[in-house]
């Protein structure tokens, strides 16, 4: 079994690092610097070869939560390099660097290739375990020989960002953002939760779009503002904010980012939500929290 093979190879490397005399782990760089050896040892001590903290990717519609969850977990494990683009990126333009002679993209070269190889071996095992959709399994299997996790992640993102399921998900999220209204939703929980989750709906839609298809800040603000029409303490928040900015002499008072605006209705909802807490303390019940359409639970 490949899983057992990975674990056996990993533990062999671990034991070799734990000995008093550390030998080179991989061919090529025969003499590792002390700092590199310490980095490898630190990684092996802090990261155990299991995939329990990673969300399983079981169906196409859960791509977005899987992607975001994996990114968060990878960052918490200090393994962000495992899902970086497999090619060099220009930090100024955020575009792939092209070889001036061949015209091909230049492959990413890690600073510490020994540590990178150990990490890729471990993280590839994680991808084998969690990638359960047919296409994801195929992409992983196609890269078993190299165990290049950056290439696997790049191909997963490239496929699912443009897949039919992602396009349908985008339509569903946009339809919800366009039509949902708090006053008609039957939502009896905290209004701050409605606003926060509506904002998450917008963010999920944006994450599935190419730059040219993303909603503008003004459109996102209008969607959120429309969702609060009919709710007395929230419906006038945007107009009040525009008035405040104009009175303060803001050069362009109507030019508001979505992230900036979201804070305003959340603040306006706090007095209402405080009364919910008092009612619960007297034996009342608050329920029916707003949920994003098609939200995943795993």
Secondary structure layout plus pairing:
Blueprint: H1 2-18, H2 34-46, H3 63-76, H4 113-130, H5 134-142, H6 149-161, H7 164-179, H8 191-207, H9 217-227, H10 237-247, H11 258-281
Based on the model shown, name its key terms.
298 residues; mainly alpha; elongated; disordered N terminus
Q: How would you sum up the global shape?
A: elongated
Pattern of helices and strands: HHHHHHHHHHH
Tell me the count of domains: 2
Average pLDDT reading: 80
The count of helical stretches stands at: 11
Descriptive report:
The structure is a single chain. With 298 residues, the protein is mainly α. The protein has 2 domains: 160 residues, no CATH class; 116 residues, no CATH class. The chain is 55% helix and 0% strand. The longest helix has 24 residues. It is elongated, with a radius of gyration of 25 Å.
Short overview:
With 298 residues, the chain is mainly α. It has helices at residues 2-18, 34-46, 63-76, 113-130, 134-142, 149-161, 164-179, 191-207, 217-227, 237-247, 258-281. The protein folds into 2 domains: 2-161, no CATH class; 166-281, no CATH class.
